[in-house]
Amino acid sequence: MAEKQTATTSDCDCSGSNETLKSADGEISDSPKPPAQDLKSVLVTSVLSLEKLDVDLYRGTHHWVPHTQRLFGGQIVGQALVAAADTVGDSLHAHSLHCYFVRAGDPKVPVLYQVDHTRDGRSFAVRSVKAIQHGQPILTCQVSFHMVQPSPLQHQFIMPMVPPPEDLLTVEELVHLYLSKPDLTEKAKQGLNKILAAEVPLEIKPVHPPHIYRLTAAEPKKLFWVRAGGLIGEGNMKLHRCVAAYVSDFAFLDTAMLSYPNYRAKFIASLDHAMWFHNTFRSDEWMLYECESPWAGGSRGLVQGRLWRRDGVLAASCSQEGVLRVTPVTPEPSKL
Ligand SMILES: CC(C)(COP(=O)(O)OP(=O)(O)OC[C@H]1O[C@@H](n2cnc3c(N)ncnc32)[C@H](O)[C@@H]1OP(=O)(O)O)[C@@H](O)C(=O)NCCC(=O)NCCSC(=O)CCCC(=O)O
């Protein structure tokens, strides 16, 4: 386990409000089904189980598609990582990836993944993956792999102090709580029911659930516990990194919107996504996702995230820039 060093102030700040579950009558991000820890995760049986069509050529299908009706970026990154990882030996583990989302993914057709062997070195290997639909790239992704090498240099920030997942409600439980409140507008009910109907293969527990009646401008920071819905197990540790790639794009970019409750996203899409894997972890066990946005401007926003194992080990770091085109929210006469 890595030794820890003193955290910066931003790393210790866990006061940001959490908008994994957004305002009941604002844009709603979809949310998970209840846990089924005895069942194999659909991420393993379906989403990240690619069909090998030929040498270095794979095909992936979809499970959950966001309300935007463009493919979920995390799914494309996760599948690209599965394809890349299949072309390197078992002693090599992904330590970083860098992706550009160049076209919207079409949920009506599968995605092809073409892997190019950029370089095989002594301890590192690099793969370039192109995700293709309708003959055109929708994502380009470079993945670098490294063999396990010891080092006397070891440090990491300290995980923020937050309540354990056992003390918090899932998004679904929160939605049921909100639905039981009186004076809920029809629009709000519809939004909440849409969340319950979604089939996101993740289980999420916001650390600071948003207040349903009062949305105030908050620091662009949020924290939530997350794990794959269902069992993945220890059989294929490479797969946990692919699942983390899937997880890392979920409700990430909207961190940049937390300071602007009077605007809703008219067009929101991730432009790029980068990830660094630091330690081994199980993505079917609770991990804390710490997200913050250091900057927004010019119709774009930057977000950065850290995925923590619950024992305080830093598992992965992520960065993403996205396009954020917003429109003012029209105040409603009723309570919600
Ligand atoms: C980013 C783009 C759209 C850029 O392509 P482009 O041809 O340069 O497109 P564009 O000109 O920006 O148009 C896109 C759209 O934005 C509109 N637009 C353009 N300029 C303005 C403006 N000033 N005001 C208001 N709207 C504007 C355009 O009319 C386009 O709208 P349209 O698609 O025609 O309805 C493209 O590269 C793309 O689609 N890439 C893929 C992005 C993606 O699919 N990412 C992964 C999925 S997003 C995700 O997973 C994160 C989830 C976020 C979350 O919910 O947390």
Give keywords.
single chain; 336 residues; alpha+beta; Porin; twelve-stranded antiparallel β-sheet; 17% helix; globular; binds glutaryl-coenzyme A; acetyl-CoA hydrolase activity; Acyl-CoA_hotdog; lipid metabolism; hydrolase; Acyl_CoA_thio
Please give a structural write-up:
With 336 residues, the chain is α+β, with helices and mostly antiparallel strands. The protein has one domain (9-149, 158-328): Acyl-CoA thioesterase, double hotdog domain (Porin), CATH 2.40.160.210. Helices cover 17% and strands 34% of the residues. The chain contains six helices and twelve strands. A hairpin with a 4-residue loop joins strand 11 and strand 12 (314-328). Helix 3 (73-85) packs antiparallel against helix 6 (237-248). The model is unreliable at 1-36 (pLDDT under 50). Bound molecules: glutaryl-coenzyme A. Residues 29, 66, 70, 72-73, 101-105, 249, 251-254, 267-271, 323, 325 line the site of glutaryl-coenzyme A. Homodimer. It catalyses: succinyl-CoA + H2O = succinate + CoA + H(+); eicosanoyl-CoA + H2O = eicosanoate + CoA + H(+); propanoyl-CoA + H2O = propanoate + CoA + H(+); decanedioyl-CoA + H2O = decanedioate + CoA + H(+). Residues 1-21 have a biased composition (Polar residues). Pfam families: 4HBT_3, Acyl_CoA_thio.
